Structures are given as C-alpha cells and as structure tokens.
Amino acid sequence: MDTPAADRLRLTEIFLSVQGESRSVGWPTVFVRLTGCPLRCQYCDTAYAFHGGEWWEIDAILAEVARHGARHVCVTGGEPLAQKRCLALLEKLCDAGYEVSLETSGALDISGVDPRVSRVVDLKTPGSKEMQRNRLENIALLTPRDQLKFVICDRADYEWARAMVAEHQLANRCEVLFSPSQGQLEPRQLAEWLLADKLPVRFQLQLHKVLWGDVAGK
C-alpha cells in the first residue's frame, strides 16, 4: 500500500489541452489535476477526481510537465489546496519559469499560495449547494493578478453574485468571471443579464467543452 511522503502529491491526471477558462483562455496549457475535494457542488464536472489517483513525487510532476513543452501550467482538482504539498508544487513550478494558475474552490485559505501564481477562486453560489463553505476571508487577499469566478445556475444565483460584486467591490480587487452552469442556464440568457446591468465582469464559456465535450483529459 502506498504511503504519502513529504515530497509527494496524489494526482488524478496530467494532460495537455487548451485552457478553456479564465484570463489565459486559448493558451496551450498543461493541467495538473490533484485528487480529492472536501466539497460536493451539485454541478461538479470532475467528480472522477474525488477518489483514487496515484502518488507522484514533485520532481516527477515537474518532469512530466516539461515533457509537454507548454509555458502555461494550471494546477486544479478536485480541490488542490486540500493537499498541503500543493503549495510546494506551485512554488517549484514558478521557479521553473512557468506561467502558473491555481483553480481553487475558495473554501480553503489561499494566503500561503506563492504570489507569482494567478489564483482563480470559485466563489460558490446558492445553486452550487455549497455556499456555506465559502471562506470569505479570502476576498481581502485577492490582488489584480488573481481572478474570482461565479458559476451561475439561475436568476437567483445571478442576483446573489451581482450583490456580492457590489458589496465587496470585487471588480476593483481583481478580474471577475461569470460562467453559466452547463445544462442549467442558457449562456445567452446570462450574457443578456450582464449587458442589461452593465456589470464590470467577464462572461465566459468553457471553451474545452465546446471543442471536445464533457470528457476527462481535455
């Protein structure tokens, strides 16, 4: 039976794809998907990463990332920050010269993340069924290098997210992203709401799903 060592992380997959979301959308990106997540959002599209995976030494992860030859690296999950050694991986990726982003649920403390990393924090809406897990203390830690994402399931989610943007002046802290929940809200409807309210946020779709559908490893 494998036992975790100080320089190991449990991974579900490492793969090369086109970044489908966030500020670096469209760039060839190596995705490092860590295993495990303490949340259970009702719309989760990576539930296969909740369990299983394999233990990788951090140096082996860096070697596999280098093999793909891309400048952008995205560490994701699951919830990557649920593994403490994720912080060391992020630091080493930055030291190696990559443009690094971290996709995190926002339920865990982001203060220890290397400042060179672009933190993409997913603030959970009521429709996610995990809103109570939001660690609102993270908001004060956000910088212009970071991004804050809302996945919108319906009009009630939109109204909640719009109020959060106004209450916390989120657009003055970092880039704010609104995404429609796939299969629950028509993308055009969300775009029309944003335009009508002139919100200072970026509308986004999951480009990788447009290209390849909802499949693992893409």
Automatic annotation (TrEMBL):
[4Fe-4S] cluster binds at residues 37, 41, 44. Pfam families: Radical_SAM (PF04055). Coiled coil: none annotated. Substrate binds at residues 18-20, 33, 76. It catalyses: 6-carboxy-5,6,7,8-tetrahydropterin + H(+) = 7-carboxy-7-carbaguanine + NH4(+). Its EC number is 4.3.99.3. Transmembrane segments: none annotated. It comes from the Bacteria. GO terms for biological process: tRNA queuosine(34) biosynthetic process. Mg(2+) binds at residue 46. SUPFAM superfamilies: Radical SAM enzymes. Keywords: 4Fe-4S, Iron, Iron-sulfur, Lyase, Magnesium, Metal-binding, Queuosine biosynthesis, S-adenosyl-L-methionine. Pathway: Purine metabolism; 7-cyano-7-deazaguanine biosynthesis. S-adenosyl-L-methionine binds at residues 43-45, 78. NCBIfam families: rSAM_QueE_gams. Belongs to the radical SAM superfamily. 7-carboxy-7-deazaguanine synthase family. Catalyzes the complex heterocyclic radical-mediated conversion of 6-carboxy-5,6,7,8-tetrahydropterin (CPH4) to 7-carboxy-7-deazaguanine (CDG), a step common to the biosynthetic pathways of all 7-deazapurine-containing compounds. Homodimer. This is 7-carboxy-7-deazaguanine synthase.
